[in-house]
Specification:
52% of the residues lie in helices and 13% in strands. By secondary structure, it is of the alpha/beta class. The protein has two domains: 305 residues, Rossmann fold, CATH 3.40.50; 77 residues, Arc Repressor Mutant, subunit A, CATH 1.10.10. A four-stranded mixed sheet has the order 2-1-10-11. α1 crosses α11, α2 packs parallel to α11 and α14 crosses α15. The N terminus is likely disordered.
């Protein structure tokens, strides 16, 4: 039976086991919300895979394995700590790139400076020869050879886009096969940047056609086969400011619809103090294994590019996976129509299966699965993860004005019981405690919401005498609280 009350626990176990264990290890270490941590891992996987593989969709189009990801979380949710731990290989690589690039630039400046001195000498010689009415045939050849030998400024090989202006972004992706990332654990700065002021460029980079023409103030720039992962974390209040300023264009242009979005419930107030000793490693074995895999993919990419190989492997779905893809697509599509469940977020819902395909490609490649065929099981995992983000987007941006009051209250109670009790290992709670400390205190509304939750088999309200006393308690159904909501 389909539930009409969604649950918002992140389906960590849909990642393949090595990554799932690393996510759980990080959640234990940092005690940050599950979706915040998982989305950070997915960001790293996207960066590591985007220059290697694309995915052919069942109808023949090809989509990149690059994601846009947004996490809204309050101050104190350990966004920065999570980002630093999970993304360490990216930042380490970035530092090494920066050092190599700095040395290359210094050598270029020396070479170009000497070239300019030679240019002035040749120019003086030419001027003098012309003034004397001499033969300039050899000088013309020498001048042409000198011009052809002008040192070329080295292209940046850095991953992270440093200049978040629109011009800076276009300059960064200019060329062939660039694979880049825009990252911020304090997303307000990124959202106010020039690159975000005109989302058309970012929309084109998400679509990633083989040839992109980007408009710069002074010229049209040709970009070939670019890949960009964009990920930011931001506080709720600052995100609301962005929406007020940009909402009409951010939604109308399809910009926000391209993001996987999460707004995790806070873990503040439920985090245990942990004592770290000198012997205890900052990174556990599972996180280190994740880092090793990221680094291996980045190094393999660099080796290919050094050999002039920029083409990407195209992954295809198996026959069973195609059937699943079509099955889920056919469930979503009718709900986009007026009166449908996803009509208010049809911009995002229409991209659900493309995003699921990208995540499936990332799962396949990062796990190191042999071959170029994505099987049904991998696509199912990706769909389940995408469902979570879909539900989060619906909760944040969907039109809930027509929801019955009991359903609104039931949603609020689920969030409360999940955060305060289920995530702390509690499988039951006193009924009066939920009413007294929860979001629905009006007696009649509280009863109506509990009735709905019982009807949907989310909870059971039973006498406490089962536990030795007489008060009413609410039993939480593991079958519901342990799995992500269905579409």
């Amino acid at each position: 039976m389909n539930k009409r009350i969604p649950t918002f626990a992140f389906p960590v176990n849909e990642f393949y086991k090595p990554v799932a264990l690393a996510i759980e290890e990080t959640m234990e270490t940092i005690q940050a919300p599950d979706s915040l941590v998982a989305t950070s891992f997915l960001t790293g996987m996207s960066i590591a895979c985007q220059s290697d593989v694309d995915v052919m969709l069942p109808y023949g189009a090809t989509t990149p394995c690059a994601l846009y990801l947004a996490t809204v979380a309050e101050s104190g949710e350990r966004k920065t700590a999570t980002d630093k731990l999970v993304m360490k290989p990216i930042y380490d690589y970035e530092l090494s790139y920066a050092n190599v690039y700095k040395a290359a630039i210094e050598q270029y400046e020396v070479d170009h400076g000497f070239w300019e001195i030679e240019s002035k000498a040749i120019n003086r010689l030419i001027t003098s020869t012309i003034a004397k009415d001499g033969d300039t045939t050899e000088l013309r050849q020498r001048f042409a050879m000198h011009k052809a030998a002008e040192p070329v400024k080295p292209a940046s090989t850095r991953i992270i886009v440093q200049d978040a202006t629109e011009r800076g972004l276009i300059n960064a992706v200019q060329g062939d096969g660039k694979s880049l990332a825009m990252l911020s654990d304090e997303g307000a700065t990124l959202l106010k940047s020039g690159a975000f002021r005109n989302s058309a460029t970012l929309n084109k980079l998400w679509d990633a056609p083989s040839l992109v023409m980007l408009d710069r103030a002074d010229e049209v720039v040709q970009v070939t086969d670019p890949r960009l992962t964009l990920s930011f974390m931001i506080q709720e209040e600052l995100f609301q400011d962005f929406l007020k300023m940009k909402n009409s264009t951010a939604r109308a242009s399809g910009f926000l619809a391209r993001f996987v979005f999460c707004h995790p419930e806070s873990t503040q107030g439920y985090r245990a103090a942990k004592e770290l000793t000198d012997e205890e490693p900052v990174h556990g074995a599972n996180v280190l294994a994740f880092h090793k895999r990221m680094t291996a993919l980045l190094e393999a990419r660099d080796q290919r590019h050094a050999n002039g190989k920029y083409s990407k492997k195209v992954l295809r779905f198996s026959t069973d996976a195609k059937a699943l893809w079509k099955e889920v697509y056919d469930i979503i599509e009718p709900q986009l129509a007026k009166g449908g469940a996803y009509h208010s977020i049809r911009d995002a819902a229409s991209k659900t299966m493309e995003i699921a395909s990208r995540i499936a490609g990332i799962f396949h490649h990062f796990e190191g699965i042999e071959g170029e065929v994505i099987e049904r099981a991998t696509l199912q995992r990706a769909i389940n993860v995408t469902r979570f983000y879909h539900d989060e987007f619906l909760e944040k941006f969907g039109d809930h004005n027509d929801l019955p009051e009991d359903e609104k209250d039931a949603r609020a109670l689920i969030g409360c019981m999940r955060t305060k009790y289920w995530t702390r290992g509690r499988t039951w709670v006193y009924r009066n405690d939920v009413r007294k400390d929860g979001p629905v205190r009006h007696q009649a509304r509280f009863v109506a919401a509990l009735d709905l939750l019982e009807e949907e088999d989310v909870i059971r309200v039973v006498p406490e005498r089962r536990y030795g006393r007489g008060k009413l308690v609410i039993e939480l159904n593991p079958a519901f609280f342990d799995r992500p909501g269905a579409l």
